[in-house]
Amino acid sequence: MRLKLLVLVLALQGACLLGMVAMQEHALATGKVLLLETAIIDPRDLLRGDYLILNYKISDVPGELFSPPVGNDFPVGTTVYVALAPATNRFYAVVKAGTNEFALASNEVLLKGKGTGTSWNAPTNSIHVEYGLERFYVAEGTGNPTGKLTAQVAVPASGRGHIKEVFVDGKPYAEAMKKGR
Amino acid sequence: MKYSDVQKLREAGLITDEQQQNIIGHFQLKEDGGGKFLAIVSIIGAALIAAGIMLLVAAHWNEIPRGVKIAAGLLLMLGLHAGGWWLREARGKYRKTGEALHWIGSCLFLANIALIGQIYNIVSRPPNAFLLWWVGIAALPWLLRSKAQHVLLLLAFGIWFGLEVNERGGPIYCESDRQVLLYALLGLVYLGAGYCLRRGRFSEFAGVTEKLGLLGFLIFVFPLTWEDFYRWNNPEIRQWSFPVLGLIAFLPLAAGIRNLHVLTRPWRWIWFGAVLGMSLFLATVWFGCWHLYTGGPHRYFWARSWNCMAGALALFVFCLLQIQIGIQERSAFLINLGVVFIALDIFATYCDLFGSMALTGVMFLASGVFLIVFGVYLEKKRRKLMKQIKTESMKGGQP
Q: How far apart (Å, rounded) are the C-alpha atoms in residues B351 and B228?
């Protein structure tokens, strides 16, 4: 009996881990793929190793793009929805934002994030938004890329983005860093 | 008396086979004399292996496909549990080693959560990963009847609690000096749970739960003896968590105190009153009732005043009561822990008294004499109590 219960607990542990994997794989496979401009800041995670903190151009959303417009008193932790549309340079940019879901034009993609306050280094009256796309785990000692960073992101219908790949000057990150070493 | 000694007596022909078995049975001697040492070595070894695997995972290998990494992590975790079961239950001979394998398996569940987070670049609240880990391993101590798993479960909950308390926007967010009070209350939750566990099917988990709880409580009471403690206020903290956690701590404590059968009824109430009183005292300190200085951003809860002596005195009295309870309960842990915290209390008070040259000089003289006399007295008393407990245990037929 105890063995059966142990097998059940371990099966639940395994199912939980595989469920996490399935959710991520589903989002990567079915999400709309966007290209975003980004830049880095570089720390380390005790359990998961080196990673890049990515700061996207879309991370700072001008207050006037919100409907209705918002100011410096924007509450921290508020859920933010942004509509992204391809700009002239093939990268996606924010065209609309709000604290509730809204209707999208045919070329727009809805991305969900959380407001973390006003941006200190962005144009005045900008809200800093985190989308859960800010960490990219890399091989040990390769967290110092030089070159233009871009991120390929999959956004499923839920609006929660997932990083597919990060490029350095157009090359996949691991490949670019291997050549650089 | 060791198992090997009895064996030597038998080999020398001084006792018969039957007498040998009777002695072994009476003193409940175990064949493996180095069991404790083996257990400690196994746990340290298991912790090192788990940490090594976690670091290897953290260093991640880009060349290996992600499916292989996940499968390897999962199979390793399941394999360790299977090996642990086989050694501990099926063979029954290598119980400690089996327990160590189960323990690594449980740590690997956390490592696998971290691995998936790494592979898919998941940005989530760190407490969630630890909560998932805690939920995942919650059934194992009871299922395996393993103290090591139980300790891991208590530690996992403590880590989650600490991270959640410091997670901005979280349900129990308390990123201020007052979080010390929350940790002390969590210690009491463990202590109360340990008392409740004394009566029931899992009474073997009671001791370790109580010990961890009381240790936690005293560690987070100890800052009261410091004259300086940086005070930082945070208007965002969730105030409701204090009374709720206090209630969660005192309900099991009140229910479980009846299980301290060795204590007389008045002593049970004295001990309960001491814990309750100390907690209320803590709350008055952390909620500013003793706070005199209000100007400027760098404020201290004792306001750098003689009020800190109240904290030192409270801890001193609490530890004396704890030692008295330890004597009655014949608990070496309670006595030793009480003595250690009295020593720490004296040391902290000693440091608090640094001031002008004249004051420091007088304080050095007085406290030096006090420390020597009291230290000698305390150590003699401790040794006497230990000897007394040992003698009473032997008389009571306990090995």
A: 10
Q: Cβ of B169: how many Cβ atoms within 10 Å?
A: 12
CB atoms within 10 A of CB A89: 9
How far does CA B240 lie from the centroid of its chain?
A: 26
DSSP state of B40: H
ipTM above 0.90, yes or no: no
| CA B351 to the chain's CA centroid | 26
Does B399 sit behind a cis peptide bond, omega within 30 degrees of 0 on the bond before it?
no
Between the alpha carbon of residue A72 and those of residues A62, A79, B320, the distances in Å are: 11, 16, 55
Residue A133 distance to chain B (closest CA, Å):
7
Whether residues A134 and B123 touch (CB distance < 8 A) is answered with yes
- The two structure tokens encoding residue A13: 């542990």
Q: Which two tokens stand for residue A30?
A: 């079915």
Q: Using alpha carbons only, give the angle B233, B237, B238 rounded to the nearest 5 degrees.
A: 145
CB contact under 8 A, A174 and B62: yes
Angstrom distance (rounded) from CA B343 to CA B142: 37
Distance of CA B39 to the CA centre of its chain: 18
Quote the CA–CA distance of A172 and A178 in Å, as a whole number: 10
Per-residue pLDDT of chain B (399 residues; tens, 9 = 90+): 777 788 888 888 888 888 888 888 887 776 655 566 777 777 788 888 878 876 776 665 666 788 888 998 899 999 999 999 999 888 777 888 899 999 999 999 999 999 898 888 887 788 999 999 999 999 999 999 999 999 999 999 999 999 999 988 888 888 888 889 999 999 999 999 999 999 888 999 999 999 999 999 999 999 888 877 666 677 777 888 888 999 999 999 999 999 998 899 999 999 999 999 999 998 888 776 776 555 555 555 665 666 778 888 999 999 999 999 998 888 989 999 999 999 899 888 877 776 666 777 777 788 778 878 888 888 888 888 888 777 776 766 544
Burial of B125 (C-beta count, 10 Å sphere; 0-12/13-18/19+): middle
- B362 φ, ψ (degrees, to nearest 5): -65, -45
Sign of the CA dihedral B7, B12, B17, B20?
negative
Contacts of A46 in chain B (CB under 8 A): 58
Closest by Cβ to B143, choosing from A2, A20, A162 = A2
pTM listed for this prediction: 0.74
